[in-house]
């Protein structure tokens, strides 16, 4: 039993997702792919902020990066959900990318929120 690897709980897995720098970068890539051509200025405000959150994560501000990722992913999810999409359009390449970005938004909101709420601020605790 002792050599068996410990299983992570679902909450710990989601928190690890929120503390990772890849999900905001992936979401920024998907948003750019959808809204760069034709250029749409409002949705294109999200990729720089998500890339900044990824940079913060790599700079050991994991809790703050999780909070930024959760907030901006949630905002983009609300913005993207306002647009209606017919059933026929859901099965195109653009529809699949939109669905993937909305699913990634949901995962980022949950994971980043958990990382922000339960995260430690190591630099503040040392002082």
Structure report:
The chain is mainly α and about 130 residues long. The chain has one domain. About 70% of the residues lie in helices and about 0% in strands. The protein has helices at about 10-20, 20-35, 45-60, 60-80, 95-120, 120-125. Helix 2 packs antiparallel against helix 3 (about 45-60) and helix 2 (about 20-35) packs antiparallel against helix 5 (about 95-120). The radius of gyration is 17 Å and the shape is globular. The termini are far apart. The mean pLDDT is about 90. It comes from Massariosphaeria phaeospora.
CA-based shape: globular
Cα-to-Cα separation, first versus last residue: 40 Å
What is the arithmetic mean of pLDDT?
A: 88
Main sheet characteristics: none
**Beta content:** under 5%
How many domains would you count in the coordinates?
Answer: 1
Total helix count? Answer: 6
Helical percent range? 55-70%
Radius of gyration from the alpha-carbon trace, in angstroms: 17 Å
Structural class designation: mainly alpha
Q: Spell the H/E element sequence.
A: HHHHHH
Quantity of strands, as a count: 0
Unreliably modeled segments: none
């Amino acid at each position: 039993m002792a050599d068996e690897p410990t299983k992570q709980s679902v909450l710990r897995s989601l928190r690890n997702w929120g503390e990772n720098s890849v999900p905001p970068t992936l979401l920024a890539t998907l948003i750019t792919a959808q809204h760069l051509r034709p250029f749409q200025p409002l949705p294109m405000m999200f990729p720089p902020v998500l890339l900044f959150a990824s940079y913060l994560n790599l700079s050991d501000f994991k809790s703050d990066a999780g909070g930024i990722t959760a907030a901006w992913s949630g905002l983009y999810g609300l913005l993207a959900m306002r647009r209606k999409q017919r059933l026929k359009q859901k099965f195109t390449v653009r529809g699949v990318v939109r669905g993937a970005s909305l699913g990634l938004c949901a995962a980022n909101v949950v994971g980043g929120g958990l990382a922000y709420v339960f995260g430690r601020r190591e630099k503040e605790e040392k002082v």
